[in-house]
Amino acid sequence: MRMRTRTAMTMIIMALGTLTATAQIPAGYYASLKGKKGAELKNAVHEIIKDAKVLDYGSGSGATWDGFYSTDRASNGMVIDRYSNDERYFGSKGSSVSGMNIEHSFPKSWWGGTTNQAYKDLYNLMPCEQKINSSKSNYPMGTVTNVKTDNGCTRIGTGSNGYQLWEPADKWKGDFARGYMYMATAYQNLTWSGTQANQILTKGDYPTLKEWAYKLYIEWARTDIVDEIEIKRNNEVHKIQGNRNPYVDFPNLMEYVWGDSTAYAFDPETTVKSEDYGGGTTPGPVEVPILDIDFTTDDGGFTQSAITLPHENFNVWKTNSQYGWVANAFYNDTPHEADATLTSPDIDLTGYAKATLTFEHAVNFKKTNAPQDVLSVEIVCEGQTHKLEGIAWPAGNTWSFMSSGDISLDEFAGKTIRIAFHYTGSATENMQWEIMNMSLRGVTTQSGIDAIDTDNTGIDLTRPYDTYSIDGRKLDNTAGHKGIVIIRQGGKSVKMVM
């Protein structure tokens, strides 16, 4: 009996980026959100975050500027000012910075200016250059179409709706949008007053933000996703106040509260979290598994075709529970001429910028030719067959399995392919080729999601497909996702509940 040691395939998942500020969500903190949606979900979030141990307002130990020293200080000591491009630096801890104010992003006048918890909440307070702070007044945040003031970071003027508005720089729009969502949830019980407040807010627990506002902020938050600075600030404020901004922790929570998923139940255990972005400003290319097949237990849906066979009822390729797919042309203990191909089902590489194939194989009974002279791996794409190069081949005289190494399929990225293992043999050179497993990995494009179709017709989940979270993050199809996802197959993208 031939004894073999099976080498485990190692699937390398490239990190999204080095994360120095991973989210620090206490165990069970968001457990009560599971299964809720829309208004019920927003109320459940409110119950979690409504109470905070806020600092005193102002400067000095235990006050706002003391908090800013932790929440808004860059590694070089510079103040992170989201309202201007001015460079200012912190002095001693707790001291205010010359030329800067404590700015309420959600203006205090909107609830009458009472020095309540909202007045002191660090999620709503940020250091701001004095002049632009004065210019933005108590205007709502929105898209400015007629600019009156622009300091290169913050624009102030009139929007298409006729309102006086202020607009942050693109790099901060998502941050402020998630901050507004937090305030509209944590303080949904407040009574709003004044012209500006009534332009953006509604009375009551839901939706609190008016439709024009939450639609715009969702758009901004989708474009300017959570980054490391925002994650770090969320963690630092949490250390001080004891509550968190859930719209930072769960970048797609907004969709379940106000957006395109209000009819679907939210699950904090399975939904995408901010650390899944890796702390980067935009999800970069990510290598993910496309296929990972163990041929000892699964034939992978491969089919064989032959040009030449030793006998009309002879199968060159056979499955074996120990060795996977096995090919030879021995018939009646005699080597014969054979030409047979083992071919995969269609593999959809649309949505991938790169692809890499790896498999483990063994070759024995070599006579005079090298295995690569008579055996080959091919890609069938757009009616053409392409022989793959760069494969690591066994010597041909042992039963030991070895890895093929990483074989680039980059030239086929974005297309639909089939992988074919091509066996040839003769009366003088008749090797046995065994393929134990196969792995295919791909580097995703930025999103891979086209326009979402409302018609699920044509989606066949028994065929290869790609899965995305509703905010465009590529997911592993084998992870057993629950809730709403985007399925992309054959160039069509549809929203489905799994």
Task: Describe the model.
The protein has 498 residues and is α+β, with helices and mostly antiparallel strands. It is built from eleven helices and 25 strands. It has helices at residues 38-49, 64-71, 117-120, 130-136, 170-186, 195-200, 211-223, 228-241, 246-249, 253-257, 371-374; strands at 100-104, 125-129, 146-150, 155-158, 164-167, 287-294, 303-308, 317-320, 324-327, 330-331, 334-335, 338-343, 347-348, 352-364, 375-381, 384-387, 402-403, 407-408, 416-425, 432-444, 452-453, 466-468, 474-475, 484-489, 492-497. The strands form six sheets. Strands 6, 8, 9, 14, 17, 18 and 20 form a seven-stranded antiparallel beta sheet that branches. α5 crosses α7. The chain is elongated, with a radius of gyration of 30 Å. The two termini are 46 Å apart.
Short description:
This protein is of the alpha+beta class and 498 residues long. It has eleven helices and 25 strands. The longest helix has 17 residues, at 170-186.
